[in-house]
Amino acid sequence: MSSDASPRKFKLHVMAQEAREHAGLADVAQLPRLRADLDLSGPPVQPIAWQVMVQWRERAGGEPELWLHLRANAQLPLTCQRCLTPVVQTLAVDRWFRFVESEDVAQAQDDDCEEDLLVFEPQFDLLSLLEDELLMELPLVPMHETCPDLPALGQESPLADPSGERPHPFAALASLKGKGR
Ligand SMILES: [Zn+2]
Fold this sequence. Notes:
The chain has helices spanning about 10-20, 30-35, 105-110, 125-135, 165-180; strands at about 10, 20-25, 50-55, 65-80, 85-100, 115-120, 125. The chain is α+β, with helices and mostly antiparallel strands. The strands form 2 sheets. Strands 2-3-4-5-6 form a 5-stranded mixed β-sheet. A two-stranded antiparallel sheet has the order 1-7.
């Protein structure tokens, strides 16, 4: 843990020389794009724990490369798409990035490498990267495994049953049988 590095102005070269992990907590109030997607009607959102490591990597026949490892864990309330109440989703980020000198280089190399590329900035905005990564991890359709207030919905509702029409012929048959007696 350290407080000597502002996560908005991460000095990448200094971090790489230190070659140690930095960690901190980010409040969702600091991440407005992410906050906009959250369901804030429940209990307060827990701060997001992050860890970052910056390192130089030697490369055969070339300049050393600057890499960044970002890890984060978040418990974020989203709106359940079935019952429309908050559902807390656990999101984990664990990703390596390689810095390149410009956007042009990033675009030229992006198709040829598996790692994610970032454009080098002497004072790097780590929280913005964290926010981008968490936004990508958000589920498209957040849902409770079992919704708290509507446990039977989806199983009992005839609207949700794709075979909902099938009972009718038998029901009709049963009523015919009843008439024949
Ligand atoms: Zn639900």
